[in-house]
Design goal:
heterodimer; A: alpha+beta; Ubiquitin-like (UB roll); 5-stranded mixed sheet; 28% helix; 27% strand; globular; B: alpha+beta; Aldehyde Oxidoreductase, domain 3; 4-stranded mixed sheet; 8 strands; molybdopterin synthase activity (chain B); Mopterin_biosynth_MoaE (chain B); MoaE_sf (chain B); Molybdopterin synthase catalytic subunit (chain B)
Chain lengths: 85, 147
């Protein structure tokens, strides 16, 4: 399944890209699994997602928890907690 | 009238006030948030999510309009790089009476801290660069308004 991932704030800086399209491996079915997979994929992911509890996610513009399923998602945004206006 | 904007350009406060002045409202309350220049800060950069940031501001504006009798509401937030002293956020609420305008304005200021998809990065004169962490006090202030 192809999925667009967008990164924000320090997650983007640590990943070195603003967004990317990935082919999800079988078994990566929810937000938590996606974060774990990115952390294991390469050195940048390891740094960006070293502390999964500090990562927030939105699926197609809606805030979601780590258990949210990825099936049918077009875009997953991954970012730190907001610091507001 | 609800007007919400997310923009890189400077906020023209005088023009925004004129728009409310023209409405014949009984009372207006406003808030201007500026970039603090303390601790040698040279730049504040605001990152945003193009779709979610504007949607978050619009949701917030509508929540205020549902809660108080407002005749006009303007909520403008800047993104991108800003220098100390620049206006970063502008809130303007108008109503027939001052109590509603003031309460709605305070609600919007408090909720902006927690409900809108914005991230702040600080750059200091000594070269330090860092992303701002959420503050517990902001959560508490936003939480006092309930769900």
């Amino acid at each position: 399944m192809a999925l667009n991932i967008a990164y924000f704030a320090w997650v983007r800086e640590r990943m070195g890209v603003a967004d990317e399209t990935v082919d999800l491996p079988a078994g990566v079915a929810d937000v938590g699994a996606l974060v774990a997979w990115l952390a294991a994929r390469d050195a940048r992911g390891q740094i960006a997602f070293a502390e999964p509890h500090r990562i927030r996610a939105a699926i197609d513009g809606v805030m979601m928890g780590p258990d949210a399923p990825l099936l049918g998602a077009r875009e997953v945004a991954l970012f730190p907690p907001v610091t507001g206006g | 009238m609800i007007r919400v904007a997310v923009q890189q350009e400077a906020i023209d406060v005088a023009t925004e006030l004129d728009l409310h002045d023209a409405g014949g409202h009984g009372a207006s309350a406003s808030f201007i948030g500026r970039v603090r220049g303390d601790a040698g800060l040279t730049e504040l950069f605001l990152d945003h999510h193009p779709a979610m940031t504007e949607a978050g501001l619009a949701d917030l504006a509508h929540a205020a309009a549902d809660r108080w009798h407002l005749s006009a509401l303007t909520l403008i937030h800047r993104i991108g790089p800003m220098a100390p002293g620049e206006t970063i956020v502008f809130v303007l609420t108008s109503s027939a009476h001052r109590a509603e305008a003031l309460a709605a304005c305070e609600f919007l200021i408090d909720r902006l801290k927690t409900d809108v998809m914005l991230w702040k990065r600080e750059t200091f004169a000594d070269g330090r660069v860092g992303w701002v962490e959420p503050r517990e006090g902001d959560q508490a202030r936003a939480g006092k308004w309930g769900a």
